Amino acid sequence: MKDTDRFWSPALRGLRAYTPGEQPQGDGWIKLNTNENPYPPSALALQRMAEVVNDSLRLYPDPQALALRETIAGQHGLQVDQVFVGNGSDEVLAHAFMGLLRHGRPVLVPDISYSFYPVYCGLYGITCQQVPLDDDFRVRVADYLQPNGGVVLPNPNAPTGIVLPLDALRWLLERNTESVVVIDEAYVDFGAESAAALINEFPQLLVIQTLSKSRALAGLRVGFALGHADLIRALTTVKDSFNSYPLDRVALAGAQAALADQAHFTDTTQRIVASREWLATRLAALGFECLPSSANFLLARHPQRSAAQLQQALRERKILVRHFNQPRIADHLRITVGSQAECEALVDALSDLLAPIQNANEVASA
Ligand SMILES: *Cc1c(COP(=O)(O)O)cnc(C)c1O
Predict the structure, then answer these.
(1) Residue range 209-261, pLDDT digits in tens
(2) Which of 57, 127, 189, 226 registers the highest number of CB atoms within 10 A of its CB?
């Protein structure tokens, strides 16, 4: 401990905080490193937000965010008391770790997963037990049948992009009935089935979604949870013991309008899914091995090139992708699916960088 840190709480000492992906300064970058949406947010949402930037900002926002929660409840066929909203799904997740995961017992998360989960465990003094994915990087639900203080699974998983079928999840929920199961659906709109349909059957199920990815509103910070009213009350209690107004008036107005703009949502998600399939095919042609993704990113490795070196070489060409220097995936790159033009620029840069290898392979096989 540094002497200057002597005022720090013991809980903070030794805590390893989360490192967000790089947000570069200046223009001209192709940002394929933080799974943002390449398309603009809904024009209706932008308009609604502009309309509330006025004298109304004198007043606090609705602490219950009732109008937004009603919109979300309506879209998922739930009651308003089954919906919680927060300042990005990261905050909703943090409240769930704090208020719903049984401290004193290990919380189970996949070994390759969203790296924020172990950080929340560290912050709240929860034991985090990482359950290995199988050799194909898939979640095996049977591995989660062990005493636990909660199970947290992203679906599709990040950074693999692999989806867990709803049947498998149901199988787990039928057997894991004594602790909360959190399904983090940050990427669900790009090709997975939402577990929201199971909420009225399983009171221990909490589903978390965000407007950051499929609604192109990462900068607005809006996320939400769906679950049994008793789970939602726990989250509300944490929130009201922390910050009564996590969503400001602009965020409330923008989020509601964005969720209502189905046409924009369908158009942009379909484009991203089409670009993902195009990009996966082109990466394979360049020799990459890609995991089958149902998200807005691809996890890919090149058998003949180090991921760290490739990331650096792309960076020099002003293209950012993400590399996780951690066991099992250190030789992979996580590439966000950008606009079609961005995907094409990436493929051009990679073709260039890999040309010496491609040529050598052709000579070898000739
Ligand atoms: C992006 C992401 C989040 C966080 O989303 P915000 O709503 O922007 O806080 C949560 N979980 C996973 C798996 C993510 O990839």
Answers:
(1) 999 999 999 999 999 999 999 999 999 999 999 999 999 999 999 999 999 99
(2) 226
Taking CA atoms only, the protein residue closest to ligand 1 atom 11 is 186
312: exposed, middle or buried (Cβ count in 10 Å: 0-12, 13-18, 19+)? exposed
For residues 124 and 104, give the distance between their C-alpha atoms in angstroms, rounded to a whole number.
Answer: 11
Q: pLDDT tens, 100-128? A: 997 789 999 999 999 999 999 999 999 99
For CATH 3.90.1150.10, list the domain ranges present in the chain: 3-39+263-354
Q: How far is CA 358 from CA 60, 118, 276, 311, 354, in A?
A: 60, 40, 23, 18, 6
The correct CATH number of 3-39+263-354 out of 3.90.1150.10, 2.60.40.10, 3.10.310.10, 1.20.1250.20 is: 3.90.1150.10
Pocket of ligand 1 (CB under 6 A): 35, 88-90, 114, 154, 158, 184, 186, 210, 212, 218, 223
Ligand 1 pocket test, candidate residues 31, 116, 117, 212, most atoms within 8 A of CB = 212
Task: Tell whether the model's pLDDT for residue 366 goes beyond 80.
Answer: no
Dihedral sign computed on CA atoms, order 310, 312, 313, 314: positive
Q: Which atom of ligand 1 is nearest to the CA of 223?
A: 7
